[in-house]
Amino acid sequence: MKIVQVSTNSLPVPPIDYGGTQRDVYYLTEELVNRGHEVILFAKKGSNTRATKTFEYPSDSKEDQLAFIIKNTPSDVDIIHDHYGIVAKSNPPIPTIRNSHSKSAAGSQIPVFVSKKIRDINKKGYYVHNGIRLSDYPYKKKKKGYLLFIGRMMSGKGVHLAVEVAQKTGKELIIAGTFNNNPNYVAYFNEQIKPHLNDKIRFIGPVGGEQKMKLLSEASCVLFTSTWNEPFGLVLIEALACGTPVLAFKAGAIPEVLHGLPQLLCNNVNEMSRKVKSGKSYPSPKACRLYVKKYYSDKVMTDNFLKLYKKVIKKKKYKVTKNSTWNKRKAIIDKELNR
User: Fold this and answer.
1) How confident is the model at residue 320 (pLDDT cuts 50, 70, 90)?
2) How far apart (Å, rounded) are the C-alpha atoms in residues 188 and 203?
3) Domain Glycosyl transferase family spans what residues (predicted)?
4) Rounded CA gap, 317 and 314, in Å?
């Protein structure tokens, strides 16, 4: 197949450190090429993949980016996989899926979500779970004694609840995360986290690359204390890929992601604390790693997207409005080229 992948203009593909969407685009692009498909990638400057052809956005203007995509998309493309949103909203005359990595995909005919939970809430479209390349995640059997929290410093991520678990169990807790330049995150951290920091509960700021992998692979357990409607929870499978168990609350899609490891799900702080103390709920490092390989590898994700591509193309239910944004701009571009 000839497949267009449309990434965002926020980070290159692959991202240097954090960047869930761009990493998904990278894994999918690499695996599609491995299987002999032709991939045309639109992405931020500095992207480096094995795509058949890569087009780097010429500016930060979404209007310019869309015009650039329209101008450089071949007419014989089989499907467009839009991770950005700007293409799907323009209603191109090519089957186009809008891959939402959050909770909505407004303005798209064929939305694809990262979990069944979020798909069901939207009552439309499909879902394909995230996948990661196992070789990118170091596997370690021997763990150190600390607990780990990785995530944004926001109330919905439950950082304060991870602190409470550490206090109840007497375990060391390392908190790693970012404020995203959000004053609400800063206020939350200063009021609910900072007063509890000491020799055993430490905040180390944002992490990525080797530092993140070292923390994930050596932790005795990762605490995923999110209480908001999680679309997926990438840290869950990243930790498990390193052979590290994750204790998590039953919020959003978390029970779906951990469906095969229900012993890791917790109803409240007290239950999570008991499981941390006993350690009896933890699957072995090998079982954690194999779980990700079976359900959440880049290969499994690619298998599922290829099935979806074929289904969308075969259904032929993709409707193009006569005055779609794509067609209007394409007509202007063609007119300028023919002058």
Assistant:
1) confident
2) 14
3) 140-258
4) 8
Q: Write the pLDDT tens digit of every residue in 231-253.
A: 999 999 999 999 999 999 999 99
247 and 224 Cβ atoms separated by less than 8 Å: yes
pLDDT tens digit sequence for 193-220: 999 999 999 999 999 889 999 999 999 9
295 burial class (0-12, 13-18, 19+ CB within 10 angstroms)?
A: middle
Cα 245 from chain centroid?
19
Q: Are 2 and 38 in contact (CB under 8 A)?
A: yes
With a CB cutoff of 8 Å and minimum separation 6, the contacts of 38 are 1, 2, 3, 52
3-state class (DSSP) for residue 89:
helix
Residue 17 main-chain phi, psi, to 5 deg: -120, -100
Tell me which CATH homologous superfamily contains domain 2-132+298-337: Glycogen Phosphorylase B; (3.40.50.2000)
Give the helix, strand, coil percentages of the chain, each rounded to 5. 40, 15, 40
Report the chain's mean pLDDT, rounded to a whole number. Answer: 94
Residue 146 reports pLDDT greater than 80 = yes
Instruction: Label residues 226-249 b or e (16+ Cβ within 10 Å = b).
Output: beeebbbbbbbbbbbbbbbbbbbb
Q: Which helix H or strand E contains 298, and what residues bound it?
A: helix 298-315
Q: Which helix (H) or strand (E) is 247 found in, with range? A: strand 246-249
The answer on pLDDT for 17 being more than 90 is no
Pick the CATH number of 135-295 from 3.40.50.300, 3.40.50.2000, 3.40.640.10, 3.80.10.10: 3.40.50.2000
Rounded Cα distance between 89 and 316, Å, is 18
Q: In degrees rounded to 5, what are phi and psi of residue 172?
A: -70, 140
Residue matched to tokens 């879902």: 127
Q: Hey, CA dihedral for 317, 318, 324, 327, is it positive or negative?
A: negative
Query: How far apart (Å, rounded) are the C-alpha atoms in residues 243 and 288?
Result: 5
